[in-house]
Amino acid sequence: MRLNYQATGPEDAPVVLLASSLGTNHAMWAPQLDALSDHFRVVAFDHRGHGASEAPPGPYTIDDLGGDVLELLDELGAEQASYVGISLGGAVGLWLAQNAPDRFHRFALLCPPVNPAANAQTWIDRAAQVRAEGTQSITEATLGRWFLPEYAEAHPDEVDLIRQQLLATPAEGYAACCEALSALDLTPDLGSITAPVLLVTAESDASVPPETVVPLATQIPGAHLEILPGAAHLVTWSHPDTVNPLLLTHLG
Ligand SMILES: O=C(O)CC1=CCC(=O)O1
């Protein structure tokens, strides 16, 4: 499985991987690229089934998604990297922190679902719906969870860029990632994480509510938590002026 990616920044700088949310692609990191690329070799990639990465038939598993990232590191010739992931990308980051600690320096995990298996049937139903009716059937509801109404009203063009990504995501890839989430519970091994972790949650996140993220700050040794007021799920897109300095400070 070769993942599609976009690399920016000095070739000899430390590598930072950027992992996107369910139904989007590497272009969702546009608000972070300039800030991070001044300091890092920034590699924004598409999960399998998303963007221009291959979309093999599902179901996928978290081992598939995490294993793809380790193969990407090998392809880049990077022994180690830091990792920034939002939503689905954050869950993959938690898996990597638990399963491949020697390959990573630091993690910044934004709005990460830690136990989506607690709502397994929701994810199984969503997978079936998207296979039957396409991603257009979930796009507007998704945007409603990802952006506050006042942001969407003030920034229709920015919201439309994310809408286009959701609409362009292959139905099979989206559905197969829903199936990975339906079987995913990362809570048992949180205490084994040794890398420095920044957790970011949004006060009004209807996708991954803050009450599911806040406990991770005590369950992951040494983790640092930031709660963003007045924000919904896709904080990297809606609040880059707040998020980018947090990322730069944490990534060093
Ligand atoms: O579809 C969403 O709202 C975003 C999401 C991806 C993983 C998750 O838990 O929520």
Automatic annotation (TrEMBL):
GO terms for biological process: beta-ketoadipate pathway. It comes from the Bacteria. One of its GO terms (cellular component) is membrane. Pfam families: Abhydrolase_1 (PF00561). InterPro entries: AB_hydrolase_1, AB_hydrolase_fold, AB_hydrolase_sf, PcaD/CatD. Residues 14-240 form the AB hydrolase-1 domain. GO terms for molecular function: 3-oxoadipate enol-lactonase activity. This is 3-oxoadipate enol-lactonase.
